[in-house]
From TrEMBL:
GO terms for cellular component: nucleoplasm. Residues 1-26 have a biased composition (Low complexity). GO terms for molecular function: ubiquitin protein ligase activity; zinc ion binding. Residues 65-108 form the RING-type domain. CDD domains: Bbox1. Residues 136-185, 196-239 form the B box-type domain. InterPro entries: 6-blade_b-propeller_TolB-like (IPR011042), TRIM45/56/19-like (IPR047153), Znf-RING_euk (IPR027370), Znf_B-box (IPR000315), Znf_RING (IPR001841), Znf_RING/FYVE/PHD (IPR013083), Znf_RING_CS (IPR017907). Pfam families: zf-RING_UBOX. This is Uncharacterized protein. Signal peptide: none annotated. Keywords: Coiled coil, Metal-binding, Phosphoprotein, Zinc, Zinc-finger. The keyword Zinc applies. Residues 1-27 are annotated as: Disordered.
Amino acid sequence: MSTNSPTSSSTNSLTNSPTNSPTSLSASDERVYFEHANELANEHANEIRTMAEALKNVIAQSLECPVCLNTFTDPKILSCSHTYCKACLDNLLECHGKDQMLRCPVCRAETKVPNQDVSKLPANLALKSLIEDMKNQYQFCTNCKSEDKPRAVVYCQDCGKYFCSTCHNKHSQWPDFISHEVLAMSEIVSGTVSVRRWRKCRKHPKEDEECFCSNCRRFACFRCVVMEHTNEGHWVIEAAVYECNHVKSIKDLKSKADKKRSCFQKYVDFIDEQKERVSNVQKQCTDDINKAYEESVQQLTEKKELLIGEVKGRTERVEKELDEMKKSAQEHITHLTTIADMVTNPTKIPSDMDALAAHDTVCQDLQEAFKQEDPDYKQPRQLSKKGKSVNFKRNVGIYELGLGKIVSAVATKNIALPTKNSMSAMVGTPDGRMAVGSWKGGVEIFSADGQHQQTVLKHAVIRGVGFLSDDQCVILDGSNNLTLYTIDYTKLNVMFETLSDDEGGFSNLTVDGDDQIYVSYRRADKIQVFSPAGGKAIREIPCDGYEPEQITSYNDYLIITSAETIRLIDKQGVVIYKLTKLGDDLYPAVSQGNTILIATVKHDVGFVSIEEYTNELKHVKNLVIDYKIEKPERWWYYLQQYRSGEIAFCTPDKLYIFDRK
């Protein structure tokens, strides 16, 4: 049989020809040849597309800033050759305060920033040009199978593919893909949104980086793990597990940052509150000065401006120090916010070694920021107290060219009473001292300079004390009994028919300029009037609708204290004027200038303010503003003024003397 049959000859020519030329093939063999060639060409084209896509991903990752994980904007090079966005470097420099040295988040090398101006650092022109070229490149549909692919109009974050209009319409109709996050290409190109990239291994472009080596701080595909990360010391976990832990860590950091930021924001708010109080003092002083000026002659203009400048200077020094503390606290808030914003975006997971190193550095900076101690409120409170002590004292009855002077009303004396929680009454003595009665027994006498000079009537339970014009002393005891004593505190045989404790309840005492003795009863809601001769009450004054807690004689009137309200009534009980301050307790006294002094007490926080009022209970000026007192157990206070001008404010435990001379 011949071995040179047409079939054998054709086969040999196909397999042995150096060029595999199809010129000598039969029609069927020619079809097989071209089909095989097309298949090889398609495989080659797919490999090229795969390599191109992998190269594109690598380039895209190289164009991402390691700090913000977005495409570089205005990239700047540090001395260590690492590149970052200018805005990111600005934020990092701001976090380090006034230091001109900028630490690289990746390698920790330091770069000097001239005059703290990041814009003076060299720009990465090659990278900037590459970014512009990438922005100008069209993105084609990755879903179409044809060679002539149309331009993409959207990108699906969940599918990881770009779609043309046709594929996008089909994609949006798939029931399983309706909830996918789809981004418009116009938004991606403009930088409004960023693409969540699928991590592909740089060494094995077809492999996903599904693992993460905690020791090397990098993602890797399974093949890289087997070849490079199986030695001792490598701790490999699933990339998804790392991402989950990373997101959880970010949320925890953000929560701590928010808490710390809130803490300092409260501190800033507190400083603003203290500033407002100091500003109110300045306004009040300025108003007082202006009022006095308007009542004076034109010659006092220069003096007025001088005084306003003085009070402004005193208060502005305090405000400046408060502003500095506020600025420091706000800088810490900005510090926390800036670093937290750089690391607490749960949709941004750093994917390469530089980004991870930068991320670790910034996280450490945030952890260091947490070590900042919480703000101390003591210093702004003390500064506020200093500013609020500034006041204006007008010249009254002094024939000199001047409105007055700026004074700081502070307690010059702070005296503990001999027996704690015992004060029950206080009144000025005929010789200009102050008598403080105790329900535990006795009357303590204090001079205007705060010296304790003597104790009288040691065995008498004191509920009220008063003095007559002939210096006789009248005492109201715990059983509502009235007793008269001579100037040397010898008991007189005079009887008064007062209401018993069961009938009248808690009582109080005052004496007017005609030596009439007034005893108020809280349970009976009335006031009895006695003459020094004793016997029955010569008349009664009803207290309709209120309980008389403390009573004070004032010219032809009585000042009645009832919790949050002070009433000025006539001798028949008619209310002439009334003043109420909700939430505060008011305690009146008559000044040496025949005006009315009122102490406003905030018992819960331990603050007292003292103001001056007219006989119509109209405000004149502030004398003491929010002075901090030692908060007593019992809610009972008294206010009086020494003949020499000092103001005495008494709590159950202490006597405070304010110098107003």
